[in-house]
């Protein structure tokens, strides 16, 4: 039966049965919790809430949009319904425009554009770098890290040949870097989780002449030394910029290794990353088990508790 519910009534459904609100419509997502590709924790964390912004930021697939109507059970009461006007983002005049805006919005969040694969380089047994051509020759394609290593997109990319085309749109996501947004970043990444970290580090370095003073301490975890992606570039950046430091951690270190050994732990975080403070942020990117462990460890060290779905204002932000 289709219902009209208040936000207070929706909020009661946050344990065994999970209700959420998206654009003033109420959905019972209980049956979908275990099937959510981003983990059950994400839906559990937003249970009983209006998650319109989080849903839009995640850039859901067409399949996700098709599933929603099947889960719809009602709408918000007129008193609680959010007007369209309240959903329009407010302009903040003193915030530096993000890189993707500064280059003229080559990509558009809701419009697909064709992009040609020009180069495909196998870096290791499980890592490949893809370089795509964009419409203007001097444009930059900023790609966020993929979350599903064995997913359909990864499999599709693996089958591409030079000269093949893909259709892309974006950017989407909750993280936009602006100069000096924090005093100090602490970063923890595993394997290809390097992607957003390096993108931010490069942006900080490019902003140095314009006054970007952001410091970075980056813990980069890998299994073997040969798995360290773009190591030469990372270490050159650290060499040329005193405010940027790279800390390597390996599960299987070679003889004579002087970096960290094993899994990233509380001692490493306490030693290398900035202590909890209002003007720091810890960024995480890697396999789900690693992210879960890092969230628990950082909370035990006094950092703010991480949400399952990160927001830009969070002290602990997971890509």
UniProtKB/TrEMBL annotation:
Residues 2-77 form the Cytochrome b5 heme-binding domain. Keywords: FAD, Flavoprotein, Membrane, Mitochondrion, Mitochondrion outer membrane, Oxidoreductase, Transmembrane, Transmembrane helix. Its main location: mitochondrion. FAD binds at residues 153, 195. The keyword Transmembrane helix applies. It is found in: Mitochondrion outer membrane. One of its GO terms (cellular component) is endoplasmic reticulum. It is a single-pass membrane protein. Its cofactor is FAD. GO terms for molecular function: oxidoreductase activity. It comes from the Eukaryota. Gene3D superfamilies: Cytochrome b5-like heme/steroid binding domain, Nucleotide-binding domain of ferredoxin-NADP reductase (FNR) module, Translation factors. SUPFAM superfamilies: Cytochrome b5-like heme/steroid binding domain (SSF55856), Ferredoxin reductase-like, C-terminal NADP-linked domain (SSF52343), Riboflavin synthase domain-like (SSF63380). Belongs to the flavoprotein pyridine nucleotide cytochrome reductase family. This is Cytochrome b5 heme-binding domain-containing protein. It comes from Gibberella nygamai. The lineage of its organism: Eukaryota, Fungi, Dikarya, Ascomycota, Pezizomycotina.
């Amino acid at each position: 039966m289709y219902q009209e519910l208040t936000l207070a009534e929706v909020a009661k459904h946050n344990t065994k049965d999970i209700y959420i609100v998206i654009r003033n419509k109420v959905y019972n997502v209980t049956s979908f919790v275990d099937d959510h590709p981003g983990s059950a924790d994400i839906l559990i964390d937003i249970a009983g809430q209006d998650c319109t912004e989080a849903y839009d930021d995640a850039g859901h697939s067409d399949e996700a949009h098709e599933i929603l109507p099947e889960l719809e059970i009602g709408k918000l009461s007129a008193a609680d319904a959010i007007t369209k006007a309240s959903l329009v983002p407010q302009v903040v005049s003193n915030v530096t425009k993000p890189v993707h805006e500064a280059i003229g919005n080559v990509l558009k969040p809701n419009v697909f554009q064709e992009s040609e694969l020009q180069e495909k380089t196998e870096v290791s047994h499980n890592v490949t770098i893809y370089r795509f051509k964009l419409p203007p020759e001097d444009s930059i394609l900023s790609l966020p890290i993929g979350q599903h290593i064995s997913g359909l997109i990864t499999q599709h990319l693996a089958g591409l040949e030079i000269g093949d085309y893909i259709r892309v749109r974006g950017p989407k996501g909750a993280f936009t870097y602006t100069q000096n947004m924090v005093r100090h970043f602490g970063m923890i990444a595993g394997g290809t989780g390097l992607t957003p970290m390096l993108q931010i580090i490069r942006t900080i370095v490019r902003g140095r002449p314009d006054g970007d003073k952001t410091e970075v301490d980056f813990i980069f975890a890998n299994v073997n030394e040969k798995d360290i992606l773009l190591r030469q570039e990372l270490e050159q950046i650290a060499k040329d910029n005193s405010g940027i430091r790279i800390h390597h951690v390996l599960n299987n270190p070679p003889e004579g290794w002087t970096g960290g050994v094993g899994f990233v732990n509380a001692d490493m975080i306490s030693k290398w990353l900035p202590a909890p403070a209002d003007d720091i942020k810890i960024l995480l990117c890697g396999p789900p088990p690693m992210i879960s462990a890092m969230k628990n460890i950082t909370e035990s060290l006094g950092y703010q508790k991480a949400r399952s779905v990160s927001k830009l204002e969070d002290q602990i932000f997971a890509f």
